[in-house]
Each structure stands twice: as C-alpha cells, then as structure tokens.
Amino acid sequence: MAAFSQRMPALAKALAWSPTPFRRVRPSDRDWPSAASWEKLKLQVGGRLEPVQFPLAACQSSFESAGCQAVVKNIRNPYYVGDQPGLTETSGWVDAWVSKASAYVVAARTADDIAAAVNFARENRLRLVVKGGGHSYQGTSNSADSLLIWTRHMDEITLHSDFVPQGCNVAPRPAVTLGSGVIWVHAYDAVMTKAGKYVQGGGCTTVGVAGLVQSGGFGSFSKHYGSVAASLLEAEVVTADGKIRIANACTNSDLFWALKGGGGGSFAAVTKITLRVHELPATLGGADFEVKANSDAAYHRLVRQFVGFYSEKLFNDRWGEQAHFSGDNTLGIMMVCHGLTSEETKNTWKPFLDWVQQSPDYSFVAPPIIGAIPAQGWWDPAWRQEHHQGVFKSDDRPGASEGNVWWNGDGGQVSWTIFAYESQWLPASLLRQDSQEKLADALFAGSRIWDIELHFNKGLAGAPAEAIAASRETATNPAVLDAFALAIIGSGSGPSYPGVQGHEPDVERARRDPAAVGRAMGELRKVAPVPGAYVSESNFFEKDWQHSFWGANYQRLQKVKAKYDPEGLFFVHHGVGSEEWSEDGFTRLR
After folding, report:
1. Over the stretch 439-455, which tens digit does the pLDDT of each residue have?
2. What pTM value is reported for the model?
3. Which residues, 6+ apart, have CB-to-CB distance to 335 below 8 Å?
C-alpha cells in the first residue's frame, strides 16, 4: 500500500498530461487570422491577395443558369482551368479528394511574394498549398480552408548560352531558366520553335514545369535524354523558414537532390528552375496505328509478336511513348522517335507490319501513319497547321495566345474524375528471350480484365549511359533505371463535376472499377513483383508508397525534409513526411 501511495503522484501527473496535437486553423476557428492580418499580408504582396472563388459554385444551384453555362463553356479548356486559382485540371478522385477552392490566394509574381506567404502561413498555423499547372492526379495542389501560393504569373523564360550554377566551378553550358508558372508548351516554343534547341520536358503541353521536375518527370523523348529531373541545374526556392535559397550541386546540394524527383510541394516552394539545353535533332517522328485481331487466340499471338519486335527493334534510345493492349483485341501503337528520317522510321516498322498483313486474322483499324518531320516543327502549331496536321486543339477564348494549344489526346484529362489508377515499372529483364513469353502472357491476361498501357519513355532502360548517370543522381525510385516501360492501368470519366447535380461522376462504377484495375495490374505484378510506381501517376491508396515511389531513397529524403521543413509546413498526400499528419494535412499525428 505504501509503495502504491508513493507512485500516486507520478501516476496522477501522467494522467493529467494530455498533449494537444498540433492543428492547423480553419476559417471557423477563433485563431484564424483577423481581417487586419490578411490586409497586412495583402500589402506585403503588392495587393496580390484575394479570396478564392470556386467557379463551379455557379452550377451547384442550377446547371442551366447563365453563370453556370459561362463556366461550362470553357471548363474543357485546360488554359481556362489553369487561369482559375479555384480549379484543378482533374475534378477529383472518388472517395479520395474533390477539387475545392482555398480560402485565400497569393497570385505570386516574385520570390518575395512567396516568402511573405510562407511566413504568414507558418506564423498563423495555416494549411499551405502551392499550385503552378494544377495537374496533380493526387490533388496535391488543392485543399479547402488553405492559403494558396499560385505561381501562374511567374512565367519568365530566359535562355543562356553559357550558364554556370552559383558557387560551382564547372564549364559553362547552354541552359534555360523558367519561372515556376511556366507550362511546357511555352517552354518548347521558346527553346525549340524559336531558338532551335531542345529541353527535356513533359509530353502534356499544359503541365507546369516546376511540378514535373519535382515529381521526376518524363517526356516523349526521355528514353534519349533521361528524366526531366535529371536536367535540373539549379533551382531558386523558398523554404519553410521563409528564406529564399539557391539549390544546385554546389549549394544546398542535399535540397537540390530532393527537388529532383522527391515530390512536388514537399520541401519548398519553387520560384524558378534552370534546366540544361541540348542540341535539337534534325527530325522527330513516330508511328500511329491500331491492329485488330479476330479472336482471343490471334490477339495472344499478336501481343507475343509485338513483345519480340519491341525487344529487337524498338528497345533503344530512339523510341518512346505508348502501346495499348485492349480487351476488344486491339493493339494500339502511339510511339515517337528521335533522330530518324521518314524512310528509317518506316523501315523500322516494316517487319512488324508485314507480319500483320500476311495473316487474315488481323486488320488495321485505319491505315498506319508513320514518318518524321523537322524537329523544330514538332511543338509549333503554325507549322502543324500549314502542313495539315490536325494534332492540336486551341484555346479559343478571345485574346488567347496562338501558342495556347494541347494535344488532341490530352483533352480527356480536363475535368475528368478518377475512379482507379495504378502504375508499375517493368524491368528490362522481361525482354530477354527466355522471358518474353511470360511478359506476353501477362499482358494478354491483364487485358482480359482491363485495358493496359505501356509507356516506354517512362522507363529508362535502353537510354544512353549519360542519361542513365544523370537520372541516377535524382531522388526517383532507382527501379526506373532498369525498367523498359511504365505500365499504367486506370479508370475514370469526364467531364464530371462532383457536387453538381446531374453531372456528378458515377460513384457506383467508381467503387467497382478499382478491384478490376487491381486484378489487371496483378497479372503484371506476377512477372514484376518488386513494387515500383511513378509518384505522379499512381494509386491514391498506394500501399507502402514510400518505397513504391522512392525505393531506397526514402530515408535520405526524410533527412532532407527534417532539415529544411522540420515542422511540416509543406504537406501533400503521400509526400515525404506526410505519414506524420492526418489525411487532410491539418493535424500532426506524431
């Protein structure tokens, strides 16, 4: 009894101590900044602070109203969506997230604007969101009740003939500096169309440059040049302490490494990036066609033939982009090539096309389009129009730039809602002669369940040694270096608008599809069992996401996070350090 009595004070103290977890504030909380505080921030950022409007709110009462129809008229235009701080390219992901407007936005134009917003968010315990292009499938540039740093207007582009990163004693090299609000089509216009050089960026024209670099990033020709992150020479950023810092191989080198594929919005707010510039090849080209088989057995043979053909003729740094394997027994080819003439491009495909044409079991859905064009015309809408190549859609708003275009095939991503999405890197060992049969079997079996896409440019096996070495120095999962392709299987619908009656996504289907998508990917994981997914194109509910996205690099990334953002100001879903927070990023769990 005496011993128990002696322990009572310590026990009482322990029971009385109930630490309150750190929680960010919302507009309904009494600690939300006062109107005077917001006005002070507005003065600091030159008046560029505003409450955020959600354009689709006009549709929630009546879809037929004039206000709603004005929004709907433009909602499939990615440039309109990108110009709205209250919208995201994707409408949401059923049971994961939906597009919601922040409480306030700083429409930043300078690094000082961003620093002021970062300091204000930290000092007032606000949820902070950073958005450039707004393309995140995971909803990482989106949160209700937050302060949004919107970099859309930081769109400066500067070409350098002899760039040297600050503090580095290295030979000068050609480069381009891009503000964090630049989108890739405008970067290509400046570097390729006008300057006749090449910069490795993304294939989708309206993706933001800064976000793609931070996610690792791949473009149509990454099989030759490496990942987008591998081209980063220097970044200017604002860290969680509000300081404007330079990050390169010689200054803040640990942060520089983390920015190269460690995930967008996790380590700092990027103000500008500088990427290496390459010589432009004479030509870029491709092959576009679909082959239809008349039976399952014939389709199985077609898949097997393509696997062997790819291994022999296409598994190199010349060829990138996609092959689609569909449940209706169609093989779709949408591939591009680098540095080949039209004749060389056609000769590459001749053995495969001859094989198809020799059998009555196969037919072309449309005549194959195979050839090459001058590389300087690839992203030039004027050249494409002059040569009757209708590959782009245009921003038709009054006063819009003629350079505001997007590929026809990318339109489906605008205002779509995701139901399921998974990715998996496939190792190049599957292309060995003794493994091609099991790869073909897996592709065929998976396609019986759901359509499968192989993105060859998102696996770097087959790239030149220089591109592999540069990509190895990024934070991306090293599995990409040994992968010949990234397999993607997904489901969604659009346009759809959660919360807009009569135009909402099909929730029943959305909850049914993930199981089938998972089974289809399961067929591929039988032959590629080691988890490895691309962070920007992956499952919102990814298990063991730390290792799927970053592999052995994750522990090193955690150390960088702890050094530059110890309090977790920068939070994104499944970002480095996010396991310490609630799903919405408002409450710290440990």
Report:
1. 999 999 999 999 999 99
2. 0.95
3. 286, 287, 288, 314, 319, 320, 321, 322, 323, 456
